[in-house]
Amino acid sequence: MFITMTTPTIPPFHQKIFTHAKSAKVATDIYLTKNNPFRPLRPWREQSAFTLIELLAVITIIGILAGLTLGAAGAVRRHGATSTAKAEVAALQAACDRYYADYSAYPIGTASPTTVTEPAKATALFSNLVGSDKLSAAPTTKRYFEPKPAMVETNKPPNSPNYFIDPWGYAYGYNSDGTSAPLIWSTAGQTTSGGTNKWITSWPKM
């Protein structure tokens, strides 16, 4: 009886080295994957960042857009204030006409329509059209005009009669001798000479 001994085939040594090297390369590739959570730090060259020029360009664009937006918002506010003042001047003129229909005379006011400075506070106009010298007080006569709270100066001085103010916070100008049609105007925020062409008035512009 013969016993046959079989010796297992051993791969060459260089094949073992190649197999181990291939496994090590695969492990290295997995480790260097960007999505690997166990990777401690990425090389600096792989991190994305803005350059100084790019940051300056972005800041410049944001500044330009902000300037355009603020400018447009300011123009919208000015247009809105102008429209409001025109409507309020027309409403005050209509209230004076209703007052005249009852008394055959207009409220008397002496503010000068030729100066750009803030007109005199027309307290007589307020009391005649509202029926009292304060908006918070009950009217003692017929009320010809119902102003919005924003149209009435009630804060300074605290115990003085109220008067009408325009959207810019200045008093409405009023001038009438009682018989002539009243002149009503807003200086539209103008307080220096040369700004009368920007006034909002009850009379046609020349």
User: What fraction of residues sit in β-strands?
Assistant: 5-15%
Query: How many DSSP E strands?
Result: 6
Question: How large, in whole angstroms, is the Cα Rg?
Answer: 42 Å
- Listing every helix as H and every strand as E from the N terminus to the C terminus, the arrangement reads HHEHEEEEE
Q: Output the number of helix runs.
A: 3
Poorly predicted spans: none
- Arrangement of strands in the largest sheet: 1-4-5-6
Q: How would a textbook summarize the main sheet?
A: 4 strands, antiparallel
Q: What is the residue-averaged pLDDT?
A: 79
Walk me through the structure.
The protein has 206 residues and is of the alpha+beta class. It is built from three helices and six strands. 38% of the residues lie in helices and 8% in strands. The mean pLDDT is 79. It has a domain at 81-201. The strands form two sheets. A four-stranded antiparallel β-sheet has the order 1-4-5-6, with helices on one face. A two-stranded antiparallel ribbon has the order 2-3. The radius of gyration is 42 Å and the shape is elongated. The protein starts with 12 loop residues before the first helix and ends in a 5-residue tail after the last strand. It has helices at residues 13-31, 52-103, 123-130, and strands at 109-110, 152-153, 163-164, 173-176, 183-186, 200-201.
Q: What is the fold's blueprint, element by element?
A:
Elements: H1 13-31, H2 52-103, E1 109-110, H3 123-130, E2 152-153, E3 163-164, E4 173-176, E5 183-186, E6 200-201
Antiparallel strand pairs: 1-4, 2-3, 4-5, 5-6
